[in-house]
């Protein structure tokens, strides 16, 4: 029988520095739940004193109080062996932020309730407390010798519940059968290894959790804001913040942007799992969403890497055509050019822009095959009647002769087209390309 229906007394402690709030809450409880005995305190210190003097079964405590906050009171209750098992609910006049929820869970609170408090919501929370208390008492009565196991189970249940709540929101009620299963397969946080955790997260947790973690593991760089766009759960940032508090993950801030970080071995494990469990279309969609996000942030290196990973080469060519050599104003060549080694030669040989940037990369390495790739690029641009592409490629062929092989005679027939294209294109080129072409033209005329 639930305690709600029994003759047993349930003692509830209400702590709020507003006496009016205490009076109203007390009346509500006394009218609807006569089996509940209500104690009140107008400060955290007074509440702590009552908890030492009486056997308290549950506490509702206001977060914002002078001298000692509700969070600090919960921490004190949780640290005291006599009161550490008491169900705690925090009352706040504002919507609880992910940070406040995470801190509340850390200090032992299992729920939040916003003020002004609905009668129905308040009573529902208390009934949950009654059931929690009744279940705990039944467990203790069944076998006192299992006390250590019960405490361990409670600790794991609390931390798993906190993890689920952090991602799904404070009003979400985790499925009890799922909770028990997760408690059975997950050790306590202190004994949990990083890779084992993420293996369980992507095997036993609900499907939205599994898919979210697998999707973000595909990316080398995972800003929190991008992870939120890819996430199928409500608050991926709160999940990583909660895990970070248990030293099981990391959120790192760089230049004002927060990033989700996996340990290298965990990243490798998750990525292999993602390639097995997400189909090609799903993986490609992750890369395309990420590429669009990075391009909006003006991080073209990351955008290109995502597009190449998605094998969306037409979009890569479009981005190269849009920015051209101005890419090197935004990012160092050493970050951009190696990306083109990830694209096969067969693919590069079908697109002028891919062939051109592969040639620029080889030229930077002083590689003799530069000649071949710049010529492939020139022919492809010529076939497409792409004047700008032809002009930029001709400029690179001039640099090839200057810096690599000195074979100016090879390109003698190209001087006239270079002049003609330069006269037509230079006025409309971006500054970087205009300077490169003008310098190449001058050197070609000189030599």
In short:
By secondary structure, the chain is an alpha/beta fold. The chain has helices at 19-32, 44-53, 70-79, 98-106, 119-142, 147-168, 176-185, 194-201, 207-217, 224-230, 236-245, 264-277, 280-296, 300-309, 313-323, 327-330, 333-336, 345-348, 352-364, 370-383, 387-405, 415-425, 431-446; strands at residues 10-15, 36-41, 58-62, 88-92, 111-114, 250-254, 257-261. It is elongated.
Oligomeric status: single chain
Q: Helix and strand succession?
A: EHEHEHEHEHHHHHHHEEHHHHHHHHHHHH
Ends: how far apart?
99 Å
What's the arrangement of strands in the largest beta sheet? 2-1-3-4-5
Provide structural commentary:
Residues 1-6 have low confidence and may be disordered. The relative contact order is 0.05. Helix 3 links the parallel strand 3 (58-62) and strand 4. The protein is α/β, with parallel strands linked by helices and 447 residues long. The strands form two sheets. A five-stranded parallel sheet has the order 2-1-3-4-5, with helices on both faces. A two-stranded antiparallel sheet has the order 6-7. The chain has 23 helices and seven strands. The chain is 61% helix and 8% strand.
List the helices and strands and how they pair.
Layout: E1 10-15, H1 19-32, E2 36-41, H2 44-53, E3 58-62, H3 70-79, E4 88-92, H4 98-106, E5 111-114, H5 119-142, H6 147-168, H7 176-185, H8 194-201, H9 207-217, H10 224-230, H11 236-245, E6 250-254, E7 257-261, H12 264-277, H13 280-296, H14 300-309, H15 313-323, H16 327-330, H17 333-336, H18 345-348, H19 352-364, H20 370-383, H21 387-405, H22 415-425, H23 431-446
Parallel strand pairs: 1-2, 1-3, 3-4, 4-5
Antiparallel strand pairs: 6-7
Helix pairs in contact: 2-3, 4-6, 4-11, 6-7, 6-11, 8-12, 9-12, 13-14, 19-20, 19-21, 20-21, 21-22, 21-23, 22-23
């Amino acid at each position: 029988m639930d305690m709600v229906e029994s003759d047993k007394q349930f003692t509830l402690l209400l702590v709020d520095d507003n006496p009016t709030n205490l009076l109203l809450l007390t009346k509500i409880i006394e009218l609807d739940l006569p089996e509940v005995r209500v104690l009140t305190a107008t400060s955290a210190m007074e509440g702590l004193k009552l908890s030492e003097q009486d056997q308290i079964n549950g506490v509702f405590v206001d977060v914002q109080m002078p001298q000692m906050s509700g969070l600090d009171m919960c921490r004190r209750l949780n640290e005291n062996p006599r009161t550490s098992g008491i169900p705690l609910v925090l009352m706040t006049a504002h919507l609880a932020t992910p940070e406040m929820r995470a801190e509340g869970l850390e200090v032992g609170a299992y729920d939040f309730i916003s003020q002004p408090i609905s009668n129905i919501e308040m009573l529902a929370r208390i009934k949950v407390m009654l059931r929690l208390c009744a279940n705990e008492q039944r467990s203790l009565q069944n076998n006192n010798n299992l006390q250590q196991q019960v405490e361990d189970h409670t600790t794991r249940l609390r931390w798993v519940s906190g993890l689920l709540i952090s991602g799904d929101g404070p009003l979400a009620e985790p499925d009890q059968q799922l909770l028990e299963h997760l408690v059975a397969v997950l050790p306590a946080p202190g004994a949990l290894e990083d890779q084992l955790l993420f293996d369980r997260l992507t095997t036993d947790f609900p499907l939205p959790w599994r898919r979210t973690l697998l999707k973000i593991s595909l990316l080398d760089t995972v800003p929190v804001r991008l992870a939120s766009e890819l996430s199928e759960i409500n608050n991926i940032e709160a999940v990583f913040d909660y895990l970070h508090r248990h030293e099981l993950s990391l959120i790192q801030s760089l230049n004002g942007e927060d990033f989700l970080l996996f340990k290298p071995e965990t990243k490798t494990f998750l990525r292999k799992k993602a390639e097995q469990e997400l189909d090609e279309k799903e993986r490609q969609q992750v890369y395309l969403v990420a590429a669009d996000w990075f391009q909006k942030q003006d991080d073209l290196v990351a955008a290109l890497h995502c597009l190449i990973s998605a094998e969306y080469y037409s979009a890569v060519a479009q981005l190269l055509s849009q920015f051209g050599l101005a890419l090197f104003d935004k990012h160092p060549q050493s970050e951009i050019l190696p990306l083109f080694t990830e694209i096969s030669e067969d693919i590069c040989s079908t697109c002028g822009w891919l062939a051109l940037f592969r040639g620029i990369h080889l030229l930077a390495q002083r590689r003799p095959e530069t000649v071949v790739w710049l010529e492939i690029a020139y022919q492809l641009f010529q076939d497409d009647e792409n004047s700008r592409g032809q002009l930029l490629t001709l400029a690179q062929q001039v640099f090839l002769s200057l810096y690599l092989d000195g074979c100016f005679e090879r390109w003698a027939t190209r001087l006239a087209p270079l002049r003609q294209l330069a006269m037509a294109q230079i006025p409309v080129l971006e500054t970087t390309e205009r300077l490169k072409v003008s310098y190449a033209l001058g050197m070609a005329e000189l030599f």
